[in-house]
Inverse folding.
């Protein structure tokens, strides 16, 4: 998207309005690329709005020549909360991508916001959900360790048996979260 749409539209050149326009159009056209259905257009517009808000708030933007600064504990916690919030907002956008109707979006959104009771656990606590929760937990531990050590390859210093165990655990989680039912690849539907 960046090379074929964003940069030819002008990229980061121009005033703020032009940059936000370029971000929005890029994502909107990216949504249309997935198909001419309303949900893809809505998904593209939603992702474009998120990118504009993210940039407007100055999150994750490093100015040219700006040195990396040491962040206080409070700044790191706020940064992690910010990252978690925008991750959740972005993930919600995938509901727009996958929905088959506007009613389905409304129904799913309502369930996400209100259906937190113990009675719903019997529907959600299945192997794929547990695998996903375990996978997310492991990724959080990995990301926090990587961030605190400032080393993207810290795991390479682990002894081979520990690394093999971690790799086996990841493969197990992937298999646990898969289904035996045949599912058509999503892009074959277009």
């Amino acid at each position: 998207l960046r090379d074929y749409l964003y940069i030819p539209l002008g990229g980061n050149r121009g005033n703020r309005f032009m940059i936000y326009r370029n971000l929005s159009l890029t994502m909107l056209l990216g949504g249309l690329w997935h198909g001419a259905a309303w949900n893809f257009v809505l998904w593209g517009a939603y992702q474009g709005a998120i990118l504009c808000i993210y940039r407007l708030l100055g999150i994750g933007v490093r100015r040219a020549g700006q040195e990396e600064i040491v962040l206080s504990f409070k700044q790191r916690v706020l940064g992690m909360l910010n990252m978690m919030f925008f991750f959740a907002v972005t993930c919600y956008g995938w509901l727009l991508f996958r929905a088959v109707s506007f009613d389905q979006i409304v129904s799913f959104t309502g369930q996400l916001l209100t259906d937190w009771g113990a009675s719903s656990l019997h529907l959600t606590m299945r192997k794929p959900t547990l695998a996903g929760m375990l996978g997310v937990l492991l990724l959080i531990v990995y990301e926090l360790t990587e961030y605190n050590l400032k080393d993207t390859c810290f795991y390479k210093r682990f002894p081979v048996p520990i690394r093999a165990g971690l790799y086996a655990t990841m493969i197990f989680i992937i298999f646990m979260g898969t289904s035996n039912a045949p599912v058509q690849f999503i892009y074959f539907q277009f």
